[in-house]
Design a protein that fits this description.
14% strand; two-stranded antiparallel sheet; 79 residues; 3 helices; alpha+beta
């Protein structure tokens, strides 16, 4: 990845865009080349009937973290 955009800047930018990640309140805890750590605060509207995170929230978080981690490995301008 080019030095002009850090992995943290990239991850925070993508989280800020309209869509699932911003709607659920995804937070970037750590972002390095090839590694992104995310979190979502527990909210009633993100829970299933049993009071735990809905599976879509968990899989969406994992998908976004993996995709963003891979993107940090690509040359600037590629996605």
């Amino acid at each position: 990845m080019a030095n002009s955009v850090s992995p943290m800047q990239l991850a925070e930018y993508v989280v800020s865009l309209p869509g699932h990640t911003s709607a659920v309140g995804t937070q970037v805890l750590k972002a390095e080349v090839g590694c992104v750590h995310l979190a979502v605060r527990k909210r009633p509207d993100l829970l299933d009937w049993g009071g735990i995170f809905h599976g879509g929230i968990i899989t969406g978080l994992a998908d976004f973290a993996a995709g963003t981690a891979v993107t940090t490995l690509l040359p600037l301008g590629r996605s």
